[in-house]
Amino acid sequence: MSAPSVLRQAPDPAPALVPQWELRARFAVSLATLYGREVPAYTTLVDVSRAVNEDFVAEHGADAERLGSISRVTAERHGAIRVGSPAEMAQVARLFAGFGMHPVGFYDLRDASASSVPVVSTAFRPTDVDELARNPFRVFTSMLVTDDRRFFDAETQERLESFVAARELFAPDALALADLAVAQGGLAGADAERFLELATASFALSTEPIDRAWYAHLEAISAVAADIGGVPATHINHLTPRVLDIDDLYARMSALGITMIPEIQGPPGWEGPDVLLRQTSFKALAEPRAFREADGTISSGELRVRFGEVEQRGIALTTAGRDLYDTLTAEVDRRLAAAPEGTTRVEVAADVWREHLPATETGLALAGLGFFRFRVADGGARPSTGSGSVATGSGSAATGTGSVALGDLLASGALVAEPIVYEDFLPRSAAGIFQSNLTDEGSRDDEQLGTPYDLERLSAVVGIPIADPNDLYAAQQAASLAEAEAALGLTIRFTTATTPAPLSQTQENAPA
């Protein structure tokens, strides 16, 4: 007798994963909702930013989206958090890895301003071009350097490190789910919701009372140090929308009666290409906090540590471009110090920019100062080379062989240069915004030696290599040139044109 047949039920299909880019996008929205509840002026900032962008697009049309589509710019945010130890920084790296965010860039804010800002920083963000296009959420993350004797004596260092080691910033389940998201490339529905809930809660403002005496001790050294090592948890320090016209945003916020910091940080507004990053913020607002007094009683008070920042992003500069930028910044400082009272930094900087920076994107590209993606234009005419005629019109290959100068290809319209957006930060600008929102400059002993930090040392803290942003931009540009060469069937000669006249040696060595 034959065995009875057994009806086998097909196993349930595996639940669909929420990919990391979608987790990242939802995380940015969740944090924005949280921050809007905690800092209502942030909602006003977002509303004004949206209005500025809509008006800018209406006025400038397609050119308005040259540095990013309006949908991306409107959705774009960067957050900022502060942590107190290498262990906490390593945990941050694990958490953000779950959202497809990786450490990029090293920033030392300790020497970037006259104020006491004893932190080194990196930013966690997507690095792949497609991932940036899906959602470019980034978080600027600063770590307190507790062993830097310019700021902390041995007793304060010991107490700081003990205080930080005793707290838990991230729930173990949040870190475990982050690891799972990395392993799977995303999370299933219930896990995704739980991960977002736990991650968002990690950055909510704590209601636990603050030890007033300990906080005051740290605040006398550095308000930033107090905000990191004097409170029981980390929190979103600011959440930053992106605008297409930061000068318009500044004027509109001021007209609403919102107190802005004295000036826009970074490059000036001028008629030439926007480069790198311009930032500003409204002043830190008084927020009610609970304090524990020396006798154990709980009292009410206020702290001013969180502010509303906004940014306008420009073209990423090459190493040569960044060197020129640093030189021009020093020159602005020199001229401003000698200028009549009432002269603004923006006025001086715009003049310096006109004198020394190319006035067009093409000039920036040919001078080797900015990063661009180069693509073959549809139907563009191809110039001749020294060894044969190059075909005209679109196609995957050219009939001629040889080489042609990049400038000739751009001039003929055969090749189109598209700017690569600067996705990162500027130490001096970040420190400038920190400084503008401090109630006191704190104290520092510059007779002491600072603790050395660089990209490699912070990479060891984070636990994975921190990417150099210049390497990422250069790889994008190189890949685009290789694709263009393959399409044209020739070698593109990329020799930099003559840059604007350099500043004198005296000016270059002027103190910042």
TrEMBL record:
Q: Which GO terms describe its molecular function?
A: dioxygenase activity
Tell me the cofactors it needs: Fe(2+)
Q: What's its EC? A: 1.13.11.93
- What InterPro entries does the record tag this protein with? HGLS (IPR009770), YdcJ_bac-like (IPR047869)
| Record-linked Pfam families | HGLS
Gene3D superfamilies reported in the protein's UniProt record = Uncharacterised protein PF07063, DUF1338
Alphabetically list the UniProt keywords.
Answer: Dioxygenase, Iron, Oxidoreductase
This protein's record includes keyword Methyltransferase = no
What family does the database annotate? Answer: Belongs to the 2-oxoadipate dioxygenase/decarboxylase family.
Designated name of the protein = 2-oxoadipate dioxygenase/decarboxylase
The organism encoding this protein is Microlunatus flavus
